[in-house]
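Archive record:
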Amino acid sequence: MKLKFFTLLFSFTILFGSLRADEGMLIPLLIKAFESDMQARGMKLTADQIYSVNHASLKDAIFQFGGGCTAELVSSQGLLLTNHHCGYSQIQSHSSLEHDYLKNGFWAKEKKDELTNPGLTATRIVRIEDVTALVLQNAQGKQDRTVIAANIAAIVKTAIEGTHYEAEVKAFDYGNAYYLMVKEVFKDIRFVGTPPNSIGKFGGDTDNWVWPRHTGDFSVFRIYAGPDNKPASYSADNVPYTPIQYLNISFKDRKEGDFTMVYGFPGVTEQHVVSEYLKFIIEKERPARIEMRDQSLAAIDAGMQSSDLIRIQYSAKQASIANAWKKWIGQVEGLKNLDGVAVKQREEAAYRKMAESKPEWKKYSDALDSLNQHIKNNSDNEYRYAMGVEYFFYGPEFFKMIKASSELFNGWNTGVSAEVFSAEKNKLIASARAFFKNYNRGIDQSIFNALTLQYQRSEVSANNTWSLINVAALSGEIYGKSIYTDSTRFIQFVTSYSNKSSKKLTKDPAYIFYNTYYPIFVQEVDKAFRQYQAKITTLMQRYVEGKYTMFPNDKHWPDANSTLRLTYGQLEGSSPVDGMAYTEHTTLDGLIAKNRTGNPDFELLPRMFELATNKTYGPYAQDGELWVCFTGSNHTTGGNSGSPVLDEKGNLMGLNFDRSWESTMSDYLFDPNRCRNIVVDIRYVLWVMDIYSGATHLVNEMTLIKD
């Protein structure tokens, strides 16, 4: 099936189908087909004002922040807003006991005070192009990977030749369509400001994925460019980027029912998964991963409560682990409450019935049946892989130090010049100092003890690859003797390292353990998972093709895949369960009320009480209240963190930062009656900058629109 068919079919679905505006993550290139419906719902923009290649449009103000969030430009001087949790690793890296930006916040008074962040990028989409026909040209079907890979390489080369741009071709709908993304990647992104954790993380784990919410989840950065306004690596000569487009600030009063639009880079959704896969997720995979993270978080939380140093060291790690952990808990609960497996089974029954109506459609029901059977028989491959990811990538941290150093150690044994040898040693020592700055041996040992017991149980039950380990004895050896669990031991070892040192390395208990069991994960578990997943992808390609072919008037949209998307809905509350009704916004009064409960997740600094008591709201209040957050019926997921929530004129209403507990299932099933995205109101963001923090100079960079 060629590209033109999918494009026309998708347009037919858009124009005549039943796709709800509040479900679906739309490709901006195709937004023209939605223009009339969006305008009927209150939008005052044209499709060209939202996405255009030939002139400035809203898409030029939207950036992918790092690898997993969204940010937006809000001034002519490259000022960039994103979520507090998106900038958290940078905030943490700049923090110390002497400069505790996590606790107290930080605001650069002048541009010279803005802090550099090596490795951080901000990426603008230059254009999106439908290239399915070119990708499949001369291919013997959609599985002809050799020809497809060669075509993609040629498309990318042509797209960026003679430019400073980067590009990639992404598969959509499991390889039924392909789109070219041409990008401009900025590499000098400086940290401008953040509120204290008592605002940016207000509510902590208690409120994460929960409504009502009172979190000021924002941080501020600035894009710097070379003198030619093009991306450049950090240099003191770089200047603030002059944007093609930046967002104006919506300062008008809000009301329930207002048009809302989210523009950003959603990460991953899996709306097409079949019933057996959803059953596997609900009953086995998610519960096991939740249990692994229960153990890690118990050790980390206890340590963070015992010491300010540990709190600073582990704050970003804790947030990263806890975010998915709590999401998964809500996801499982939501899918059970919705009876998600039964929903999928009903959809599949209708799919099979339709496939029986024409002989040429039987291949679609065959694909569906094969999918369910393959998953039922082989899902242990994914279970083992998921457990291995939790253990080797989110478990004991000394694994990271072994990964970072073993390649260099092995390389040194092959014979290099003295100059290279010395430079590599110095590089590794610098990396080790950065690692151990945020490492606590006691916490890591507690995580190792708990997770090793759990992981080896899962592996032994799978196929006896692991022999049972005396974890307590091994733990004592690793944390008492290994170079990888102690800064002094590691740096001394590297400083005096020579080829003769390799014998000592092979006797190190951590090195032996890791190099015994990690290769099993790579060579056996990962390999089996990839084979299992490859068959799923092939079957899903045909199954999804059947949806487009047999149900052209039903709602179809490509799963999120970290590409630029748009979703629209309205500012509204919800009634997610019987007897419960949520209002559409929260205020500063509610924030103070939560503090009075005594929960440490609701701690505030004294200035908040002073301003709240005196109702010092400046120009940021509405009807005597300071809105903090609101909810909308926009379909979002991970990666939409930091995305701008725009009003009917394209002005910035707030920053998307979360979903409600009842919405976390929306990666698999979207329920428009209960799924809501959570937004920090831009007026609260500016109040925190201006009134609370005194960073008025940043607000003065922005353009405020009051009508």
About this structure: The first strand starts at residue 62 and ends at 65. The chain has a mean pLDDT of 92. The CA atoms of residues 187 and 233 lie 5 Å apart.
